[in-house]
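From the pipeline queue, job 12 of 40. The input is one protein chain; the requested action is below.

Action: predict structure.
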Amino acid sequence: MTIVEGIEARGTHHCETTALGVLLRHEGLDLSEPMLFGLGSGLSFVYWDGKGMAFPFLGGRVKPFELTRNLAARLGLTLTVAETASARKAWENVAAPIDAGRPVGLQLDCYHLDYFTSKVHFGGHIVAMYGYDEHDAHLVDTGPQGGAVRTSRAGLARARAERGPMTARNRSFTIALPAHPVRWQERIVPAVRDCAEAFLSPPIANLGHRGIEKAGRQVPGWLLRAGEPQRDLPQAALLMERGGTGGALFRALYRDFLEECTRLVDDGRLRTGHRLYAEAAVLWTDVAALIAEAGESGDAGHLERAGAVLRDLARIEREAMRVLSRL
C-alpha cells in the first residue's frame, strides 16, 4: 500500500474546492472552502437545455476545472495537468506523484465510483487521490460523499475514461506553490472583479444574469417540458440545494466568501455585495423548494412563483455584480 502522509479530509461541500483544499494544504496553504471558491472566480450561472437532454440543467458555477485554472493563475501556482487516452499512461500519471509523496487531483465521471449511492453520470466531478493498493484507490471527496473514501481501481479507471458531456481524457493534475508565494489577500479584489465582469457580460443569453432571466421565462413551463414531472422537478431542486453546491446553487458559498472578504478588505462595496448575495442565497433556496413542490403536486402555480423569484434574482445579482465590478 502507498499512502501520502498528512492528508486531511474535511467535510466540505463542493467537489473541486474539496480537492483543491487537499492539494493546497499538503503544500502548506490552508484556505477556507469559500475563499478557494471566490479566489477561483467560481460563481456563474448557466441555463442548459441542449438537444437530447431529458430535462434542463441549472448550473451555478463556471465549467469544471476552470476554477482550478483561475486559482492557479491568480496565486502563481504551478499547475501540472496530464491527459491521455491510454489507460496505462493514465495510471502512471497518478501513481508517480503519489509514490513521490504528493496527492493528485482527478477529473472523472462519478457514476463509476463505488461509494456513490446516486448513480448519475456527471463527467465534471473532481476528487483528490492520496493512495492506492493492489485493489483500491484512496480518495478525498466531499463531506456528503464520505470525505476519505475508497473505490476500486477498476471503477476508478472507468470513471476517468468515460466520455460524454464535461468529461476529460483521464485528466489528472498536481499543484505546487512558488518559491515566493504571493499574498493571497492581495488577490481578493481582482478575483471579485473578474467574476463580476464575466457575470455581467456573458457571451450568450444562457449565462450570467441573462441566463437567470431566461430561467425566469422558461421554468414556468417545466411541467410540460418534463418527461416525468414527479421525478424530474424534485431532482432538479435537489441538485440545486444538495448536489455539491453548498446550498442555494453556490450562492451560499459566494456569500460566505464575501463575508470573509469584508473582514480582510475595508470597502463598502464588498459589504453591499455580501448583503445582496445573502439575500440571493435565501431566494435560491426558495426557488428550489417551489420547483420541488410543483413536481410533487403537479401545480404549475409553484413554477409561476419560481419564475417571478428568478426574475427578482436576476435583478439582485446584476446589482450586486455591478457594485462588485467597481472595487
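Job complete. The two ends are 50 Å apart (CA to CA).
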